[in-house]
Amino acid sequence: MKNYLLLIFVFLGSPSRAQFRYSPATPQVGQTVSFTYSPQGTPLAADSLIEGRHVRYGAPSTMHLSRPTSVTLVRQGNDFVGEVRAPKADVAGLAFLFRNPQQPQRVDLNKGKLYVVPVCDENGQSLPHATGGQASVFMRTGFLYEAGSRPDPNWVVALYEQELKQHPDLRPLYWSDYYAALIKQKKPGYGPTVKAGIESYLSSRQPPTPAEFMTAAQLYESMGDFPKAKQLRERQKTADPGGSLVQKDRAMAVRNEPDWTKKKAAYQAYAREFPTSSQLPALSILMADSYYKNNDINGLVAFVEKLPPTQIDVLMLSTIAFKMADEQRALPDAERIIRRAIAVQQLQSKPGNLTPTAWATEQQTRQRQLMNTLARTLEQQGKFADAYTAYQSVINLDEAENSDPRTNERYFLCALRTNHAADARPMAEAAISTGRATTRLKAALREWYARQPGQTPAKADAYIADLEADLMADKRDELREKLIDEPAPAFALTDLLGRTISSTAFKGKVIVLDFWATWCGPCVASFPAMQQAQARFQSDPNVRFLFVNTREGGPLSRVHNFMERNPYPFVVPLDTQQRVANAYKVKGIPTKVVIGPNGRVRYRSVGYNGSPEATVEELALIVEMLK
Prior knowledge:
Residues 482-627 form the Thioredoxin domain. This is Alkyl hydroperoxide reductase. The protein folds into 4 domains: 2-173, Immunoglobulins (Immunoglobulin-like), CATH 2.60.40.10; 188-239, no CATH class; 395-479, no CATH class; 486-626, Glutaredoxin (3-Layer(aba) Sandwich). It has 24 helices and 17 strands. The protein has an 8-stranded mixed beta sheet with strand order 10-17-16-13-14-15-11-12. A hairpin with a 2-residue loop joins β7 and β8. The chain starts with a helix and ends with a helix.
């Protein structure tokens, strides 16, 4: 029998003894195996540096233990030698490839069959899974893909068939992988053969397990037979009424329930029946969001305070609490929610896909985000001292360039209200110098500075200008590259008050044209910023802003109604035929066009970036440069 097994092993592609040799000849679990690799006649024949790389193999259920491991080889003449220890359990053999470690694409895979060291029992007999395990290397690991190759489906099928011939009792372990290999092999007529094999196997089981139904369904799906797969999944649900498929269906029913009262009841029933379901964390997050969206804030607070930490998304709670704070809605409840998130964040354990260092960094980032939300909820309640303390854990002077302008603003305003402006001043200055300050922060720092002993409003203006000097110089340089020089077509339009607005009347002035329409969301969104920009130059007779309505596509009453509802102090010429827009090469709206005192178009910008401060600042710089 021993000789028969050796012949089988050689038949299944064992490398030549001259190519790959190992000792002892019949290694057992836990033993050290010495081996010699001769690269002559292989892709590595000319390489002076070679490493071995191997994975363990065994029963299909143990293949998750297989991790590619490198073995250092020592050159001896034309050969390379190394050694490896066979694991003490869950192993039927080792599969090797050889490569140049400096050029991993240079590899010897033994013609795709790998170099194999079978592990034997105390009688020298190959263990079960000696050949089926090799097939599992190809089917259940990415070992060959890592080397830039793909398994030979014919070889994989041969390995499985040999294993099942030698050990028919192992069929329950290999049947699905074997049929999956036949599907990948795609020999003519494989479909009926595989389907017949699946049905035969299921019929032999009394009864099939839910896992076998699931696996069979997956095999049918891979062949495109979805009706049969669905039928098998229904049988799986019947066989396992509390199993994963039933849980998934019930979870989907909770997700899709439109009635809020019924949705809560369905979730509570699910949580009682499946307290350990893998679907429950995602469902709990969904429910927390649903409580907020249904304005059931009392219910939300009670819900999150009872949830275990594993079912809480702290960043989602932070988002909810921050929105509530911004809206000044149920502020004490918003504070309770974010404090619960902070407590949970400290309890949550490291995910398996993160290193300790990465997790520590992630936790620090989360902590700052949560504390920022806490500070906002406290600030909105008038608890400025507590808010200032919370903001201090968020603000980092060394990261001013990447800081959030609105957080910087809130921090300094809290500092003002609690007599800590001098302490917060360095961060405010850094925020202004790096362009991370809002208009309100600049104004607040200017006013505070002007009130200090020996200072005046004029000195405060110079102080802020000095902080911004380098930044403004850089931005002017950038804007100069954006300047254009094109003719400015003459125009005459009637505005909403019936006045004639003619470009000739503005000769020698800087003219800012804002092309817009009432239906254009970005146009309307930019209006508060444009109002600020216009206000900057309201006392300057050499600057005019015109908000040219174009591409309206509807009755003029719509424009009148819009301006009555939104009383912006704008002059609104009506470009009903789009002639002016076309003349000024307007491709989309909103488009801002700035005409210089010389009557030439010097600047054109399309769209709105969503930042009022950036919009005001850029337009103001352009106007000042052209003046």
